[in-house]
Amino acid sequence: MTIQHHPDDDLLLAHAAGRLAGGPAVLIASHVELCAHCQRRTTELETIGGALLEELSPEALAPEALARTLAAIDAAPVADAVVSKRARQAPRRRPALPDGVAWPRALQHCSATPWRWLGPGMRWSRVTLPQDAAANVFLLRIGAGKQLPEHTHSDCELTQVLCGTFHDGRALFGPGDFDEADRSFHHQPTVQPGGDCICLASVSGRVLFKGVIARTLGALVGM
């Protein structure tokens, strides 16, 4: 199945420039590593950015700029670097994926909880990013024919499909597809026949579910 849905240029450019927070950065990286179109587009944006930098007039650094930079390096806590190295080297806890479904390389230093019950035919797993402990990233595994409750978003939700397909009333999303939803969208993703749909998601703000039970479950999950 051909990838049909991609991040927009603003997201790709922000990712290339290193301006994204940990959660969105992992989602974009997970998509780009699978998508030849976005790999080419990212290269084009990086080339344009480099050309624009070359056209800028040189600016003289303050006389003490180098001294301040070296002092900041010397003052950096060594303990944090040691903990970070240990975190990268620690064994990764990850829930099982279906045969033939690979973990995104962007998650190679991340861990995830075992699958947890969310509802009939629905499970979820919390993903921990060592570089951004506050990131709200999780996996959703929804069975064929099941649907999430109708909802919108207080801010933004990024979704990368790892396997399976779903339709949310706007479009059909399959393996490799990327979706960005904000408060202007009210949707109800429904998994299509053929097997479970597993998605990686990053949420900024809250998922605003319709219905008391759905809101309660969402709050327990941290959506």
From TrEMBL:
Signal peptide: none
Pfam families assigned: Cupin_7 (PF12973)
Entries under InterPro entries matching the protein: Anti-sigma_ChrR (IPR012807), Anti_sigma_zinc_sf (IPR041916), ChrR-like_cupin_dom (IPR025979), RmlC-like_jellyroll (IPR014710), RmlC_Cupin_sf (IPR011051)
Record-linked Gene3D superfamilies: Anti-sigma factor, zinc-finger domain, Jelly Rolls
Domain ChrR-like cupin stretches: 106-200
SUPFAM superfamilies (UniProt xref): RmlC-like cupins
Protein's UniProt name: Transcriptional regulator
